[in-house]
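Predict the 3D structure for this chain.
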Amino acid sequence: MLKPNMHYADLAESYLFYHIAQKTNAYLEAHPGTHLYRMGIGDVSLPLCAPVIRALHEAVDDQADKTRFHGYMPECGAPFFRKAVAEHYRKRGVLLSEDEVFVSSGASDELGDILDLFDRSAVAMVMEPAYPAYVDANVMAGRKIIHFPSGEENGFLPEPREGAAADILYICSPNNPTGAVFDRKQLKAWVDFANQSGSVILFDAAYEAFIEEDDVPHSIFEIEGARTCAIEICSLSKTAGFTGTRLGYTVIPETLIRCGMSLRDMWVRNRTTKTNGVSYIIQKGGAAVFTEEGQRGIRENIGVYKKNARVLMEALDMLGIRYCGGKNAPYIWLRCPGGMGSWEFFDYLLEKIQVVGTPGEGFGSCGEGYFRFSTFGSPEDTEKAAERLVSLLK
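Done. Predicted structure below.
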């Protein structure tokens, strides 16, 4: 008899956002016609900017012309897309070879796929609170996981210490769910730690476009020593509104070597075996993000989400509720008022004011008692949700 992957039995009962969807759907069935103010899942609400739309249309037209038609794309990425990403990094002072840039169908997919590079015996360390897929992907692979907690005492930015020894180190900055960001000194400590221990950092930079402060790196490769210990995984989902279009990229330096094997070369072999690349149309749209006009367009959209964050932060300030995030990230992480548990607060907001957020417990045990708001909703809904929050909790 075929034996399935028994590690799936070790997963939590349901994925966090699936459980939220079940609860909200049940509420809507019981209260038909009710409008919910959704600030839970981190999905964008603004359309793709004009330069991207133009590029997508042009690419579709190319597919209708025999002389410009494209079939299979290079598995590791179209040269024009890889070049656009590398030039974007160069403008920030990070020198990359185009061959170190790999196209992906988004950060979520890549964070799971990239684990193919590591032996099943590799130990993964997840700084929590954390995006739950980090844990679940390693559980599915049967890996040992070190749950490395953080809290208010360190601003949800833990420092390396002896107990952090692991083969794979997950770092997300700006962080999901807390919105906390590592400055250069803090990231340098982790880079030095990884180089000393032989670990590899998986650096999730999905929210780098929201960074405002000068001392906060957009890329781990701004840190000396990172090219020998880090892989960077990026997404255009939150940066440019590609949640429904699916596009991202991964940077693996040529100098990242373990046991005499180049992880960059291994990833070339992986992609050319397991994928047929990302569509020409989508990559053309993605390349437009990195033009001057594209950068202006995405900054305008990000500005709307940042205004949403300010509206929510002002409401929390008025209520005297402690929180972090919002400034350099599209998430606000708050302590549940009145000593409520995170799921208890979820139910309370849903029932009383029809506001949907994300319970902190879903991001790890140290997230219990906390709650996450996403700032990707419409400005109108965000303002009304903030008003309802103040009326309920003042």
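Residues 50-290 form a domain with the Aspartate Aminotransferase; domain 2 fold (CATH 3.40.640.10).
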